[in-house]
Amino acid sequence: MDEQTLTQLEQLKQNLENQRRQAQTLVTQTAETLAQHQQHRPDGLALTVTVEQIQQELAQTHQKLRENTTSQGEIRQQLKQDADNRQQQQTLMQQIAQMTQQV
């Protein structure tokens, strides 16, 4: 081999070695990042959960939220009706007391 080819091969070898080191560093960093990420995953969330499963669970949660909101509205209406009834009962009791005093 001539000197120029040998020099080119040495440079190529050095470039490939540099790329290998960079790739190895990236693999190590990625593994560390993945490990940190997995440590912070929500409790009860399996690593094998799919996007579809998460979307289905999210849809179910939205449905429960709508149902709870409806229930809250119904309960608020009942509480308002109870307060109105108490007020009306108090007014009637006052009217009865006035009528008994007049008699």
Q: Helical proportion?
A: over 70%
Mean pLDDT: 92
Largest sheet: none
Order of helices and strands: HH
Low-confidence blocks of residues: none
Distance between the termini: 132 Å
What is the number of E strands? 0
Q: State the shape.
A: rod-shaped
Residue share in β-strands: under 5%
Total helical segments: 2
Question: Could you list some keywords that capture this structure?
Answer:
Exonuclease, dsDNA, ATP-dependent, hydrolase, exonuclease activity, nuclease, mainly alpha, 86% helix, exonuclease, 103 residues
What do these coordinates show?
- Residues 63-76 have a biased composition (Polar residues).
- Residues 63-87 are annotated as: Disordered.
- This is Exonuclease, dsDNA, ATP-dependent.
- Helix content is 86%, strand content 0%.
- The chain has a domain at 8-38.
- The protein is rod-shaped.
- The longest helix is centred in the C-terminal third of the chain and has 52 residues, at 51-102.
- It has two helices and no strands.
- The protein starts with a helix and ends with a helix.
- By secondary structure, it is an all-alpha fold.
